[in-house]
Design goal:
Belongs to the TrpF family. It is an enzyme of class 5 (isomerase). This is N-(5'-phosphoribosyl)anthranilate isomerase. 30% of the residues lie in helices and 20% in strands. The N and C termini lie close together (11 Å). Helix 6 packs parallel to helix 7. With 212 residues, the protein is of the alpha/beta class. A hairpin with a 2-residue loop joins strand 9 and strand 10.
Length: 212
């Protein structure tokens, strides 16, 4: 099975075009003001304009208000919502777009319970737990906690995030066998600015894994 790729933290049209050209299935726009990858509505509109059909534009939030989410949907026409905070299932499912829920993994996290809690989600995104930081840490967690053997019966696509880059993504896919991988810092020159070379190397690593 092919592993899908989402490149998150896109802040400009050029990086969006590069991501798509290199084969990304989705891009992510961060609407969390404390993030170095935060985009305004105006920036987001310009980015969305250059994204072609069949590439999913994802809007990332951390404990937003209902009005904030509705405004992003109305103004940018994003395809998918991604929630990284303490949002409830009822909140996440209350909009006119499908959603995925991010959870920050600890050694004792109960993945089955989390999936049941957000049963209406289109996928569960597994990120690294760092106290006080909702995501984008650049650190990987222990993938053995969510190995493919431990996912039996989950009945929900798993999206792996946290500290991924070209040098470790093949092993990550080996261990977890995720539906998709989500990368941000691992393909950057600096926070908010992607490297076309790193994107290419990351995509090559993912695709080489598929061919083996």
């Amino acid at each position: 099975m092919r592993t899908r790729v989402k490149i998150c933290g896109i802040t400009n049209s050029e990086d969006a075009k590069s991501s798509v050209a290199k084969g990304a299935d989705a891009i992510g726009l961060v609407f969390y003001r404390k993030s170095p990858r935060y985009v305004t509505l105006e920036q987001a509109k310009h980015i969305v304009e250059v994204v072609p059909a069949f590439v999913t534009v994802t809007a990332l939030f951390v404990d937003p208000t209902i009005d904030e989410v509705k405004e992003v949907i109305s103004e940018t026409k994003v395809d998918l919502l991604q929630f990284h905070g303490e949002e409830s299932e009822a909140f996440c499912s209350g909009f006119s777009r499908p959603y995925i829920k991010a959870v920050r993994m600890k050694y004792d996290s109960n993945l089955s319970a989390l999936v049941k809690e957000y049963a209406s989600a289109k996928g569960i995104l597994l990120d690294t737990y760092v106290k006080g930081v909702p995501g984008g840490t650049g650190e990987a967690f222990n993938w053995d906690w969510v190995s493919k053997e431990k996912q039996n019966g989950l009945n929900m696509p798993v999206i792996l995030a946290g500290g991924l880059h070209a040098e470790n993504v093949e092993r990550a896919i080996d261990v977890v066998a995720p539906w998709a991988v989500d990368v941000s810092g691992g393909v950057e020159l600096m926070p908010g600015k992607k490297s076309e070379t790193k994107i290419e190397q990351f995509m090559k690593a993912v695709n080489e894994k598929v061919r083996r």
